[in-house]
Design brief:
961 residues; eight-stranded parallel beta sheet; nine-stranded parallel beta sheet
Length: 961
């Protein structure tokens, strides 16, 4: 591996430099020690220069195999390629001397963690080493944080320790507090000090809530703490932590009527919980003295009134008082402080029985006004006791004890209760058979503004005793009353009508009148008839039970949630039910079978919420009152234009005027079709709607199926309508999106002729594309673009891309065949001379290199005809053709003349000396000796001649050529 290329570190260089300088100056061989970590990658000797050497000369390194050195002054980079640590002798020689030194390659492990200083991040710490696992211990308590991720790295992260430094690698439940760890001791501080998942374990005591401060704790409300918290005690024996009177060991005195005087002779009870009808001594005026503990108005402190009773427990009755009042009204108020003679609110009777008794003896009395309170037929235990209505006397409840006019009363606010719960309170086994009875009274007898409850009609078999009211042969008007929780085993009812009579019942509620099969809200039994208007029946055995009835009329009423609604043992001769809600349905005009949606029937709230179908659904003609059971106005027109009076005992102040809520979906995307249009979907199901009374439906505008064209946005309205006709709307945007890519068809292969430089400008082919799109084509583009330079022959791909008006695109490709139609040029050399050889022939040379050629796209080759090496024979001229071929197969030719030249002289051999005989004139014609010559030539001899043609001078020498 590459380990070193001498020092770039200035400090290290300086040391080496000084050492070398010293050795050079003293002129002796010495050896310097240089240690280099194996991880060092570069060193240099850039400043090891000739200034310290007398005659520097060249520098040479002597080194062992595997090391390559040179010096910077020599302009060579030194490289160490050794891969094994060790010591290597190195020598630098120069003109005038040399320096030897020992170069050591290795790595130190100062901290002994088996990682040298090349690999270690901190060679001074054996813990900080590669691959170390660190555990989070921010508070330094020796316990790592539970669940904290470890970190694996060489260097220590802040707030982390190695395993060897820790007591445990997990377990610290609070790494921000060194005092909290598994080894800590638990202390009472509300913290889990020892990280065992428990707080203050073994250190807490249990304390109990003492809310009433009586020193006794509530066993149901405990708290563990190191010491008693405020309002807590250590015992848990209190029976009622909301009453300081109810505590262990309390002595109780009987005061059933709550008048502050305990019953004379009654035994005390010692216990924690208050017995019913008992008080502690601190709550009493006296612990004895009450002669009638069933009537709070009778006690030693009471005033004697005209009621036939010993009111003040002095063993004297009425004390000679004249009882008849001067007015036609008798007053009853169980809290009246005065003489209790019924003559005024101050002197009102405290018992309704006293008022009824007086009214029976005073012909001038026409009305009894009863203030808020609970009134029972007897203070004793006689179950046959009942309030008996008087003929011609109207009994009105709902006063607060200050009114001077009947119209001032408020029976809803001032609740007057007529209760049969005599004897043991809350135990109906000893309750009266009937709360009220009437015998032969007419319709001038009125019961108005009362709650009649807790009758228990359980007589001997066969006796008919009724329940809340027993009407025998009577026709009273019963108005603004509540009949609830009247029970029994035989013919009990909220109202029982028997033996003739035609009672009229208006604005009344009948709740939970149950028992045997003959229990009901109203039981009409062998009577002439009954008229029921604006009444509400709920939770009864039967709402209305009929047997042998001549006439029954039910209007504007609600019969819902009963075991039976109208139960006819024998159907009345005339039965008219109209404009009423009857669960399970019932024939008649205006009747409904819809939940009236009472506000809270379980808790006795039978008012109509704005959503009730009973609102404005009654018959105005049947209504005879101006107020409902709550004292609110009747005939409130909740929905303008509709009927005014509501069904049931209560009139709603307003109908459902609350519009429904609707939330539209977010922006929708509508994909356009092939004609750039689409049918609008039904978005109504995407709306989120709610309504207090119920949603009727959701409509859409524009309507579902409406055709929309072109891209862009479309506003859609969603309209919600509730069951009562209220509506609301919202809007959302529909983005009409063209997702259909255009189509494109490319042309076939195109031919592009290349020019002089073997290039051509690419034409615009976009006009050759065939395109179409559902919403319209925007453009066609080309790649490479028109005008781009195409070079070189061959095929190229051109892409045409069509883009529609909405940005969708599509592409196709076609081939452009780049064609070189330009022939190359060639220029042949001038006439060439070819020397013939010994046989008058020669091998034709290669003349192609002598041709001058060019081509726009490049020359492929030059060929020759006849081919080089062909045999040329005989002197003379011959034509050679040179042909150039370009890279694309185009060719051109030229010719050159080759002159075949014979440069070889022929050979000749003359004959021997010839004798010529002279004639008379001493002359003779020279003979033709040519035939005597022996000749030869590579190309052949043409002729031989003799010379000169003159008479030779003897002796003559003839030279042949």
């Amino acid at each position: 591996m590459n380990l070193l290329s001498l020092f770039t570190d200035t400090k290290m260089y300086s040391r080496l430099f000084l050492a070398l300088m010293l050795l050079l100056l003293i002129g002796v061989e010495s050896r310097a020690q240089v240690s280099v970590p194996v991880c060092t990658t570069s060193m240099s000797t850039t400043n090891l220069g000739p200034s310290f050497i007398t005659n520097p000369g060249p520098y040479n390194w002597t080194y062992p195999a595997g090391l390559t050195f040179s010096c910077n002054p020599c302009q060579v980079v030194a490289t160490v390629t050794a891969s094994t640590p060790g010591s290597y002798p190195v020598s630098v020689s120069f003109t005038g001397g040399s320096i030897n030194y020992l170069l050591t390659f290795g790595a130190d492990d100062t901290d002994g963690d088996s990682y040298n200083d090349c690999d270690d991040c901190n060679d001074n710490s054996a813990i900080e080493k590669p691959g170390q696992v660190w555990y989070k211990d921010s508070d330094g308590d020796g316990y790592a944080e539970t669940g904290a991720a470890t970190i694996t790295q060489c260097a220590r992260p802040a707030g982390y320790k190695a395993q060897t430094e820790l007591t445990a690698t997990t377990g610290d439940c609070n790494d921000g507090n060194a005092a909290i760890n598994p080894a800590a001791s638990e202390i009472c501080d509300g913290l889990d000090n020892n990280c065992n998942g428990f707080t203050d374990e073994g250190l807490l005591a249990t304390y109990y809530r003492d809310a009433d401060g009586d020193g006794y704790g509530n066993p149901a409300m405990a708290q563990q703490s190191c010491s008693a918290p405020p309002g807590y005690v250590s015992n848990n024996i209190d029976c009622n932590d909301n009453s300081a009177v109810e505590k262990p060991g309390q002595v109780w005195y009987k005061d059933s009527d709550g008048d502050g005087y305990a019953e004379t002779g009654a035994a005390t009870i010692t216990q924690c919980a208050r017995p019913a009808g008992y008080k502690a001594q601190t709550e009493l005026t006296a612990t004895t003295g009450d002669c009638n503990d069933g009537n709070a108005a009778i006690n030693p402190a009471a005033s004697e009134i005209c009621d036939g009773l010993d009111n003040n427990c002095n063993n004297a009755i009425d004390d000679g008082i004249n009882c008849c009042p001067s007015s036609n009204v008798i007053y009853v108020n169980d809290d009246a402080p005065g003489a209790n003679n019924g003559s005024s609110w101050t002197d009102a009777f405290t018992d309704l029985q006293d008022a009824l008794a007086l009214a029976g003896n005073c012909p001038n009395v026409m009305e009894i006004w009863v203030a808020a309170g609970t009134y029972k037929p007897t203070s004793g235990t006689d179950r046959n006791a009942a309030f008996v209505m008087k003929d011609g006397v109207a009994i009105y409840g709902g006063f607060n004890g200050t009114e001077t006019q009947l119209s001032q009363r408020d029976w809803a606010a001032n609740v007057a209760i007529l209760s049969g719960d005599i004897g043991i309170p809350g135990n109906n086994a000893d309750n009266t058979f009937s709360v009220i009875r009437s015998f032969g009274i007419g319709n001038s007898s009125i019961l108005d503004g009362f709650t009649v409850t807790q009758a228990n009609a359980t007589p001997a078999s066969g006796d008919i005793l009724g329940g809340g009211i027993y009407n025998e042969g009577s026709s009273p008007i019963i108005r603004n009353c509540i009949f609830s929780n009247n029970t029994g085993s035989y013919v009990n009812a909220g109202v029982l009508n028997v033996t003739g009579g035609t009672p009229t019942i208006i604005n009344c509620i009948f709740i939970n009148n149950v028992g045997s099969a003959y229990s009901s809200g109203i039981f009409n039994f062998t009577n002439t008839g009954c008229s029921i208007t604006n009444c509400t029946f709920y939770g009864n055995q039967s709402a209305i039970l009929n047997q042998s009835v001549d006439l029954l009329s039910v209007s504007n009423s609600i019969l819902w949630g009963n075991n039976n609604q109208i139960n006819n043992i024998t159907t009345p001769a005339t039965l008219t039910v109209s404009n009423s809600i009857i669960q399970g349905d019932f024939p008649g005009t205006g009747n409904l079978n819809e939940d009236p949606l009472f506000v809270d029937p379980t808790n006795g709230d039978f008012r109509l919420p704005p959503c009730s179908p009973a609102i404005d659904a009654g018959d105005d003609a049947a209504n005879t009152t101006t107020k409902d059971l709550a004292g609110n106005p009747r005939k409130v027109d909740a929905y303008p234009g509709g009927s005014q009076v509501d069904m049931g005992a209560y009139e709603a102040a307003a109908g459902d005027n609350t519009p429904p809520t609707i939330s539209c979906p977010g922006t929708q995307t509508l994909a356009l079709g092939s004609s750039c249009s689409a049918s609008l979907p039904d978005y109504t199901s995407l709306a989120t709607t709610s309504d207090n009374c119920g949603v009727q439906g959701v409509t859409q505008s524009p309507a579902t199926g409406t055709q929309v064209n072109g891209t862009g946005s479309e506003i859609v309205n969603l309209i919600v309508t509730d069951v009562n006709g209220n509506s609301n709307s919202c809007q959302f945007t529909v983005n009409k999106v063209d997702n259909t890519s255009p189509t494109i068809s490319c042309p076939g292969t195109q031919t592009l002729a290349l020019g002089a430089e073997c290039t051509a400008a690419l034409p615009d082919y976009t006009g050759l594309a065939t395109t179409s799109d559902n919403c319209g084509v925007q453009s066609v583009t080309q790649s490479p673009s028109a005008g781009a330079t195409a070079s070189g022959s061959g095929n190229m791909e051109v892409t045409l891309t069509v883009t529609d008006v909405n940005g969708n695109s599509n592409s196709c490709q076609f081939t452009v065949n780049k064609v070189d139609n330009t022939s190359p040029t060639i220029s042949c050399p001038g006439t060439q001379t070819l020397a013939l050889g010994g046989d008058c022939t020669a091998a034709l040379p290669d003349y192609t290199s002598l041709a001058t050629t060019s081509d726009n796209c490049g020359v492929q080759s030059v060929t020759q005809s006849p081919l080089p090496g062909a045999t040329a024979s005989g002197a003379g001229n011959m034509t050679v053709t040179l042909t150039v071929l370009d890279v694309n197969g185009n060719s051109n030719s030229c010719q050159l003349t080759v002159s075949k030249v014979d440069n070889t002289a022929p050979s000749i051999s003359c004959p021997a000396t010839q004798t010529l005989v002279l004639g008379a004139e001493c002359t003779a014609p020279l003979p033709n000796y040519t035939s005597l010559a022996t000749t030869s030539d590579n190309c052949g001899c043409r002729a031989s001649r003799k010379a000169p043609r003159r008479a030779p001078q003897p002796p003559a020498r003839v030279i042949w050529r």
